[in-house]
Amino acid sequence: MITSETLGFDVSRETLERLNHYLALLNKWNPRINLVARATLAEAVDRHFADSAQLVAVLPRPLGHWVDIGSGGGFPGLVVATLLAERAPDVSVSLIESDTRKATFLRSVIRETGLSAKVHAQRIEACAPQEATVLSARALAPLPKLMEFAARHLAPGGTALFMKGESWGKELEDARSQWQFSCTPHTSKTNPNAVVLEIGDLVHV
Ligand SMILES: C[S@@+](CC[C@H](N)C(=O)[O-])C[C@H]1O[C@@H](n2cnc3c(N)ncnc32)[C@H](O)[C@@H]1O
């Protein structure tokens, strides 16, 4: 069960109800379409919900358009959308996921929980540029590839939040051979070897 304690900060009863409804749907759909690795389902509250929730604490108050790419079962984008509905209702959230079964799952969660996020069932490379003020991704691609996606979908002055495992230092080095950018690594609250990379000022070299 998801509580304010498991998320690490206080949220309203309505937000907890939405998140627990989402968790129930994840448990129901996962055996059919593998939204998350089966081995991680029992630990979904920490591995997926709390891990995703930490992103809303990284930026003081994001305004505008938050876009999550390669959302899969909605991590981190749909958790962010649920939290921002309470904390920053002026932010619109879009999710890009090319697998149509996963996109159908995302739309079902949005409908059943009464959220207003938009789902693009398209490839990130083919989706119209989103002018995102914040772009997020977890477990999608190596950093140089993520930079290409960011160049397409970030608005000028926008920020990317990329969740990376322990190879992040090497990936950062690889990305710096092709891109100029500012980067602040935030140690993950759920895994001391992982980081959230806060990236801005992206320019192709
Ligand atoms: C490993 S999963 C990670 C899902 C989720 N972000 C998470 O951390 O649980 C990667 C997801 O990205 C989607 N994906 C991969 N390449 C994509 C692309 N070029 N355009 C859109 N979606 C893509 C896949 O369908 C898959 O659902």
Keywords for this structure?
7-stranded mixed beta sheet; Rossmann fold; 205 residues; globular; alpha/beta; 7 strands; binds S-adenosylmethionine
Helices and strands, in order, run as HHHHEHEHEEHEHEE
Spatially, the strands of the biggest sheet line up as 3-2-1-4-5-7-6
**What is the typical, i.e. mean, pLDDT?**
96
Q: How many domain regions? A: 1
Q: Measured on Cα atoms, how large is the radius of gyration?
A: 16 Å
Number of strands: 7
CATH C-level: Alpha Beta
By secondary-structure content and strand pairing, the structural class works out as: alpha/beta
Number of helices: 8
Full CATH superfamily name? Vaccinia Virus protein VP39
What name is given to the CATH topology? Rossmann fold
Give the overall shape. Answer: globular
Q: Please summarize the sheet with the most strands.
A: 7 strands, mixed
Distance between the amino and carboxyl termini: 46 Å
Keywords: Cytoplasm, Methyltransferase, rRNA processing, S-adenosyl-L-methionine, Transferase
Organism: Mameliella alba
Catalytic activity: guanosine(527) in 16S rRNA + S-adenosyl-L-methionine = N(7)-methylguanosine(527) in 16S rRNA + S-adenosyl-L-homocysteine
Family: Belongs to the methyltransferase superfamily. RNA methyltransferase RsmG family.
